Amino acid sequence: MSEDNNDDLFDFGLSGLSTQFHQDVEETPFEVARLWATGDVRRLRDDALRLLQNPVPDWALTALWRAASSMVGMDGIRTWLQDVEALCTAQLLADGHAPEAPASGTVPQALTDAVLEELHLIGPALADATTSHPYAAVPDVVPALELTVREVDPNLGFRLLLRCLSRYWIPLDHRTYDRYTNLGRQFGFGEHVVGACDFLLKLQD
Questions:
Q1: What is the reported pTM?
Q2: Concatenated DSSP letters of 51-89
Q3: I need a surface site. Which of 91, 101, 131, 180 has the fewest CB within 10 A?
Q4: Where are the domains of the chain?
């Protein structure tokens, strides 16, 4: 089996894993991660390591994961990420692959700035939705995303932003969606990474 075989069209890594948690899930969180990792092990490990190896405080890790997934009541987020990283490392070794450090390619500052600009534009709507939700309220999501984009990885930060927008049904206009699509192309995303948000356009109609 390929170590990354989600055919590069859909979301991947930690943001992709977050899409697997919903009210009908019967597996344990670790089992969900294990199943996802069989097809996306290196990118999932890279995302987990990037968050663990950078100075991201627990409040930000908690906000990111709770907002991106449906696991609002989950505690011990740093331990969870460590478990995910260990799972992926074990899978890589079992498959005969070296568990290398995450790729450290330099993202152009202009691209990082573009993601931050989009976050600042959509931030008020996202902050309102995430703090006022009747059963899935999560504080500090926007500052956690900004920290991720600035200090960890704008690629991961943008993917988590898209996921949070979908989770909280934040309406998008066509100009914003087009800008997101352009950013996705610059990051090399498959068409359904940003495309998973296209239903948010209908909320404007």
A1: 0.92
A2: HHHTT--HHHHHHHHHHHSS-TT---HHHHHHHHHHHHH
A3: 101
A4: 13-94, 109-204
